[in-house]
């Protein structure tokens, strides 16, 4: 049994979980109930509650906030800041997509409704990741660093499919950079 003697020890042990914004509960109550071993009283303070998703960086709202900050930096022509914000947004959306996918795989065959919901979350966050990746590639082009844009554009094409809207735009960027020589023309005018 893990005994914690103070709030400081508790927050030192579990600070990472709280900084990610996954769960929150009152450290004092948890520390008190674990130190005396006698507190079996279940009160509202002892119940683990989810943090408001708009306050957490590890959320769709957190990633979108980073993208908005990047857009503001682009408008101010501060491309270094924009690149940093877009890289952070990419990481957030990639982590979210991976977490949703892991949950989907865990519930696959056990609870199809939950597995499908998590798959939808993985798809949505992967799309947001690819959108932030595309914006980052454009920022690298604006910085005259096409060598940094090329691998990002290829990642998008692999993730989205060359015939998707974002896939087509990414291939067009590769063509404009001069990385590919043949334009990609589909049968329609989309």
Please explain how this structure is put together:
This protein has a two-stranded antiparallel ribbon. The protein folds into 2 domains: 7-51, no CATH class; 55-177, Serine Threonine Protein Phosphatase 5, Tetratricopeptide repeat. The longest helix has 31 residues, at 112-142. Helix content is 67%, strand content 2%. The protein is flat, with a radius of gyration of 22 Å. By secondary structure, it is mainly α.
List the SSEs and their pairings:
Layout: H1 7-20, E1 23-24, H2 27-36, E2 49-50, H3 60-75, H4 79-107, H5 112-142, H6 146-160, H7 165-177
Antiparallel strand pairs: 1-2
Helix pairs in contact: 3-4, 3-5, 4-5, 5-6, 5-7, 6-7
* Oligomer designation: single chain
Lateral strand order in the biggest sheet:
1-2
Can you tell me the residue ranges where pLDDT is under 50 for at least 5 consecutive residues?
A: 1-42
What count of structural domains? Answer: 2
Topology order in helix (H) and strand (E) letters = HEHEHHHHH
Portion in helices: 55-70%
Short description:
With 190 residues, this protein is mainly α. It contains seven helices and two strands; from the N terminus they run αβαβααααα.
Provide keyphrases for this structure.
2% strand, mainly alpha, 190 residues, disordered N terminus, two-stranded antiparallel sheet, Serine Threonine Protein Phosphatase 5, Tetratricopeptide repeat, 7 helices
């Amino acid at each position: 049994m893990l005994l914690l003697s103070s709030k400081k020890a508790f927050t030192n042990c579990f600070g990472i979980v709280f900084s990610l914004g996954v769960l929150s509960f009152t450290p004092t109550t948890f520390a008190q109930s674990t130190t005396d071993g006698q507190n079996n009283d279940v009160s509202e303070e002892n119940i683990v509650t989810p943090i408001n998703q708009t306050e957490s960086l590890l959320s769709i709202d957190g990633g979108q906030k980073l993208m908005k900050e990047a857009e503001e930096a682009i408008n101010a022509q501060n491309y270094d800041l924009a690149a940093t914000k877009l890289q952070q947004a990419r990481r957030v959306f990639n982590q979210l997509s991976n977490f949703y996918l892991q949950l989907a795989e865990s519930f696959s065959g056990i609870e199809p409704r939950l597995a499908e919901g998590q798959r939808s979350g993985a798809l949505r966050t992967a799309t947001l990741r690819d959108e932030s990746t595309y914006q980052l590639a454009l920022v690298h082009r604006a910085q005259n660093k096409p060598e940094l844009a090329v691998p990002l554009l290829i990642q998008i094409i692999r993730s989205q499919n060359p015939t998707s809207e974002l896939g087509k735009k990414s291939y067009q960027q590769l063509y404009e950079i001069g990385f590919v020589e043949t334009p990609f023309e589909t049968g329609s005018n989309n």
